[in-house]
């Protein structure tokens, strides 16, 4: 088994003194894709917030290449190579695509290589180069989602935390977003992906964790999950 690039051990976290996540453990090898699936409101986004430093742990640890990162500030976690692409667009609506992308390179190391980073983003997401002068509020939903991913790449992400990138999009646009995710993997990025629809990631993820009420209730290969209709019906209503 490949050595883990990102490792989470017995993680607990929550809000206002109440744990939402309890005892979660997972690992991702470099270049791998691990998916977190489960019902809405059961802690998937909270897990990504904890990894990215937006939420302090109440227990457990997070390591990147064997080094603890759970005590770092969010900007330090970004500098270490972990970038969180949150649910929804969260773009600056009156700024252009280019200006939104540039906001991703806010750390000094990334800013010093702005032109090179932009070319890398455009190589992976050529549509953004065509739209670079367009105001973000006039983009389609899929294009806005691509800008969000591109902004994360501007920070030189090694590990990308993608929170439901297909949310609210038409099926044909979802296919395009997953083509982008495939391209991210081919470029060597490591991906932790939150997705409500297990069938969408079953043939793409190296490993799937089913999160329910803040705990992993099932873990395994995507094909194994799809072969368990009773689990899908109980936890995902499918």
UniProtKB/TrEMBL annotation:
Q: Where is the ABC transporter domain?
A: 6-238
| InterPro entries membership | AAA+_ATPase (IPR003593), ABC_transporter-like_ATP-bd (IPR003439), ABC_transporter-like_CS (IPR017871), BCAA_Transport_ATP-bd_LivF (IPR052156), P-loop_NTPase (IPR027417)
Q: Which domain of life is it from?
A: Bacteria
- Residue ranges annotated as transmembrane are none
UniProt entry keywords in alphabetical sequence:
Amino-acid transport, ATP-binding, Nucleotide-binding, Transport
Q: Which GO terms describe its molecular function?
A: ATP binding; ATP hydrolysis activity; branched-chain amino acid transmembrane transporter activity
One BP term from GO:
L-amino acid transport
Query: Known SUPFAM superfamilies for this protein?
Result: P-loop containing nucleoside triphosphate hydrolases
What Pfam families does this protein's entry cite? ABC_tran
Belongs to which family? Belongs to the ABC transporter superfamily.
Q: What is this protein called?
A: ABC transporter ATP-binding protein
**What is the species of this protein?**
Hypericibacter adhaerens
